[in-house]
Amino acid sequence: MFLTQTVPRQREIIEVVLRNGWDYMRRLLTGGKTDEPQLPTPAVLKNILVDLGPVYVKLGQLLSTRPDLLSGAYIEELSTLQDEVPQVSWSEIEVVIRKQLKKPLEETFTTINPVPVAAGSIAQTHRATLIDGREVALKVQRPGIDITIAQDIALIQGIADLVARTEFGQTYEIKAIAEEFTKALEAELDFTLEAGFTDQLRRNLSSSRWFDPQQIVVAEIYWDLTTEKLMVMEWLNGVPILSAKLSHQNGTEDTVVERNAITTLLFRVFFQQLYIDGFFHADPHPGNLFYLQDGRIALLDCGMVGRLDPRTQQILTEMLLAIIDLDAGRCAQLTLQLADSNQPVILSRLENDYDRMLRKYHNVSLTDINFSHVIYEILQVARNNKIRLPSNMGLYAKTLANLEGVARTFNPDVNLFDEIKPLITDLFRRQLLGDNPVRSLLRTALDIKSLSLQSPRQIELLLDRVTSETLQWNLSLRGLDGVRRTMDDAANRLSFSILVGSLIMGAAIISHNAQTTQLSFISSVLFTAASLLGLWLIISILRSGRLR
Length: 548
Prior knowledge:
By secondary structure, this protein is an alpha+beta fold. It has helices at 2-5, 7-19, 24-29, 42-52, 54-63, 72-78, 90-100, 105-108, 145-163, 167-171, 174-188, 191-204, 252-277, 310-325, 328-338, 347-359, 371-384, 392-410, 416-433, 437-467, 480-513, 517-544; strands at 109-112, 118-119, 123-130, 135-141, 216-218, 230-234, 238-240, 279-281, 289-292, 297-299, 305-307. Helix content is 60%, strand content 8%. Strands 1, 2, 3, 4 and 6 form a five-stranded antiparallel beta sheet that branches. It has a four-stranded mixed beta sheet with strand order 5-10-9-7. Helix 13 packs parallel to helix 19.
């Protein structure tokens, strides 16, 4: 159905993939049989997505957050995809703004710059001034983009349905990726969701024991003007962090100090999001980290966020420590704890894979280890062992990779281990004692008291049940059903064998001592019954295939 509805787009896709030298999609879309396909090279895949347009660029950006599905080469290449498209004319944008406002445009804004400061595939941003003098940023949805996205989503889902029939599609969970992409793209069309994410991040970072909240900024949302297609937020004066010119009257020394302070701030801000709040900005690339004119750091564009539950946070904290200790066994155990499925895994093989992977870091200084690269390798090992991890692991790994990349570029002298060490120490202390050590200590004391009061009584009850022979053990062991059935079959056959032998012996005794016709008849019946039962037992054993 989708093929007939999107024939022009289908032809365009075929032309693009053929132009880039990859003919698998052509054979798939035209109904031809395909061998198990291989992905095109990272560079070719990126070119295909760029040529297909903005929606497919976003698909590539989503795939770049899935190192649990793709290797590091693909992740690195797709991470460079930029969502940049030609701007929409001001006359079209103005129509959208007027439709979204409750009051006339002239009663809401004194000025709006018709030239956008940024243009993306979903929206473009304009600078404006409210009627009360406050400067704001207007994020306006591109006219008709919802229709275009609906068409492309239908096409992508149709292609995913076809590819899912192949072993390739099942291995790479193509349908699940298509569904995840569909939900993410549809969510981007509702700006109230992004506004809500922005507000939540702003609240979370308003207090911290790791950094001064006054040094980090998340734009304020003006909810009275925000709708599904228009988001109005505080305007922040600044430049991307890698373009910042740090200069002081006292010279170079202060510049180095400030770079170190900013690097520390960024690490602490994101570690709080990841390991304490469980809600994090998942796209900290250089364009979304701004250095403001007053020296503060701003986080922009909260359209892509991730979530981590407390159990996952604890496992990932331990994983960082296992990486620092180069502990392959612990990495394997933690990976299995993170696993989304209960598929059988050969633990020894997993540990050996981690050991080979970590061995190359044994003689490397901790300051030189690229932690995000190690995490990518851990996800790669999990994928090679058919371990399915939650999709948020991809966002987690990509966030750390972006953060580490920005930190190393902004401050080449940064010592990542020195930045991470005190945070991990504090995280473990929090996990052991909680945010309120006194309360945790009192709770533990009450638990110990309760246990000490209950234990003697429980032991007494246990001993009473043992001595009165009323204790029942309920054990549930996997795989015993087959053993039980086999033992039952063997017992039944043994019983039949004894019965057959008894009948034969009885018939022989009666036949030997038979003085009358009746006893001879009984002897014959017993021999006949024994022969039939013996024949049935032999046939049963032969049919079971367990003669030996």
